[in-house]
Amino acid sequence: MYQIVTGPLLWLTFAVFFGGLAWRVYTYIKGLDWKLDRVAYGTQTAAGIRGAARSIAAWIVPFGSQGWKVKPIFTIMFFTFHIGLVVVPLFLVGHAVVFKMRFGIGLPTIPMALADVLTVAMLCAGVFIIIRRIALPEVRIITSLYDYLLLAITMAPFVTGFMVVHQLGGDYQFWLLAHVITGEIMLLAVPFTKLFHVVGFFLSRGQLGMDYGIKRGGLTGSPMTW
Amino acid sequence: MPEGILCNKTPVTTQEALEAVLADKGGKQYYAEMLELEVDKAKLATSLKNTCKSRIRTWLEMCAHCGLCADSCFLYLCNDRKPEQVPAYKIQSTLGEIVKRNGDVDNAFMRNAMEVAWSQCTCCNRCGQYCPYGIDMGIMFGYLRGLLYSQGFVPWELKIGAGMHRVFKAQMNVTDEDWTETCEWMAEEAQDEWPGLEIPIDKENADIMYTVNAREPKHYPEDISEAAILFHVAGENWTVPSSGWEQTSLSLFAGDWEACKQQVEHVYAAIDRLKPKRACGTECGHAHRATVIEGPYWAGRPDGLTPVRFLHYVEWLEEALRLGKIKIDPAKRIKQPVTLQDSCNYIRNYGLKEITRSIVSYLVEPGYFVEMSPNKEHNYCCGGGGGFNGMGIFRPQRNRALMVKRDQILATGCKLVIAPCHNCWDAIRDLEEEFKIGIKWSFLKPLVIHMMEVPEHLKPKEEEE
User: Fold this and answer.
1) Residue B374, φ and ψ in degrees, nearest 5
2) What integer is the mean pLDDT of B41-69?
């Protein structure tokens, strides 16, 4: 079983993950229509790219935009959640070891203590996000089961991974298997759910940045302070 | 009854049809007919297929339901933070459902969607600034308005407004003859005080072609003479077109894209005919949006630009002040606390925040200008944008919406508000009427005329001793 989920199934997962995201990027860009969107993507491209870069930069940096500044607690939770989510799987020693073994490729790693801190912080932020969804009426009204399901899918590999690393919960083999499978479920879910914001954030934020950069003042007025 | 006599899917294109809808005072029959209006589901599905592309579909699909847009929406804030006023909820429960059901929605759904689209969003676009993904619900509501309009679900006044543009090429029944007569009359009246003043009509190759809001010839002709006085004093080589002078677009508020296209092409045709070096519009927000920001796209111009550089009035005025074409008498500068209304349409959505502040620096004695909070591109809508000022059935909602601007103004402690936008000007007038907070409000033109230095050679001869 372990051989399958870390062998062919893993390959399949990566193929679907990267292929799916590439498809998302392709269909998004293909579906942009300068006349319907009323943004001259094709002729004012330089101004558009400038606008897109400004828009993305303001939002990818903690407190880089007005929107982040007015919600400091959520901003901290949001970035804690996302930094843990991206950094831990990519730079975990355990993952690097498997990678080296399988593919002969060495990856940079972070100290285990840091990975632990990031994982626990990410899970705490996730719990905060869940409580926030329930507690705030303005968030509750737009929340559906789907949103909780996605949080579960996202947090499961981190819960199971933590169990594995610290050999908690008794049955090590079970937690290892559970970790690999939940990790694969998450990666598989990305292209098919709104988790595709892995690329969608850049596309959508970039698009609005182009809109402002080209049409809404970028060519003549002062640039937007996001 | 699938289609009403007045309330139907057919745009108003003739004067008779226009008069029939107008005669239905307050839209009584119109709204009664709307209760029975059938939804053409097949047509709606086709519209979605042809016009709802990756940008909007991605916005609808990807929304993380984080609720960060809530506080960005002034209508959420002034409606006791009702969750139903959260922008994400408003758009997901209307356009989101239409897309999800691929147009399979009924009359009651569409009437509710109409109420949300025109009374719970002014298309100020502020939410897009506060969404991590940049989901601009103002744009989506604009799109939704187009779908609703094509199905006949549009507030009575906007059906008329769009019809006016189609019939008169103006938002009000002002003909080209009415317009040129008003210009001649205004020029004559002003000549007593301003010898040599002219309102040149259809002058070719002028430096500036000036366009207006139809309510100026209709209700506020002094606005036209004020513009003429300022061009005169600045020594500008300017003109107005006899046709294509109307820059506004109630069809933009209505979601009547065909009428939008016709209207803006009419203005561009005047530019082609008169070949001015530049054009300039009046102190209006949505007129600029319609003619300069969205207009090039409606007209199918691939570069997204107007045929010649098209200034907002504040851009022309700032330039005139900066170049010394108009000089302000320092003794007459404003010496009372004064604040400035940032119009969504050309501040947030056209980046002219520094231009208006530069003007303020000429007009206001240092120390007397007070910024609203928030301000510049983050300012709140006046409360009357997107057509909100003009719809009878949504008047109570509109009046409530004015509370945010009222409180912003009160917080500045100012008794004077500079409002260089017709819509904002109206909303601020109405909020004073509604809440009596003891403020005055003004366009820029009358302020500048009052405080500028008039060169000797432009003064009337009899004043000479």
Assistant:
1) -70, 170
2) 97
